[in-house]
Amino acid sequence: MTTLTSTPGGTSVRRPGPPSPAPGRRTPRQGGTILAVPALVWYLVFMVGPMVAIFVIATLHWPGMLQPVSFAGLDNVRTVMDDPVFWDSVRNTAVQLAVALPIMIVCAFMLGYYVAQRPPGHRVLRYLLFIPGLISTPAKAMVFYAALSPDGLLNGALQSVGLGSLTDAWLASPSTALACLIALDVWSGIGFTAVLFAARLNSVPDELGEAAQLDGAGHWRTMWRVHFPVIRDYVGVVTMLQFLWTLFGSAQNVLLLTQGGPGTSSTTLSFLVYQKAFIAADLGYSQTVGVILFLAGLAGLLVIRRVFRQNY
Is the pLDDT of residue 145 over 60? Predict the structure, then answer.
């Protein structure tokens, strides 16, 4: 393809234009779209598909995998809302998030800030903090069971120092079962989160902290008034991750340690989904709770994003 251009003398000069693509030859943009098709299909089948299935099953009366299915409409919603076990699980989940999430994020940020200052042995400390993230969930549950059982390490330590009156069946007591699960959540998540914060804080220019200290700010004010605002958006991302892990992942800890008891004192929403689906064989009820859990997670993410968005 050529174009005609005029020179100052009024004559026309023929210049070659950009080459046109050969017939049947794909452009780079078309090739990139084709490369994205397998990932898109995978996402639609294994992510969007199950999500749609949750909403569909929530409208069905399905008493077991091999049982006949009938349309229930909103009957499952009425059953869930009239069930006191559901409201106990809502309360337990709210307490779990309200206690575990702030403790985990605040302590992890402070610990990550300390590691980012590169104290002696900070490389070894990073590995030690990451160890809980490398341990499988059953192994973590066994560690806490060994410590909190009636003849476990905690009661033994209390008796050895003359505080035998404080011993308790921690995992079998309605007043302490949920607290033990919260302690497990904090212990398993705080080190991993601290390593993430330390990695992000290492990218903050050292001049910011040095300037604040020259102005008379100590480590505490430098940490919260200088470094925290700089990585505020990253704190929001980590908080959202921990929120999702705590909200949706608590069922495995409940299953391994307390089975939701005593009574319903440690039953959470995610465990209730498992319990109704695989123990009570009520798939419609289970997925109705799953829809509520999904909506609660979505609302929580929006709130966290708004709270931690940058102000500049």
Answer: yes
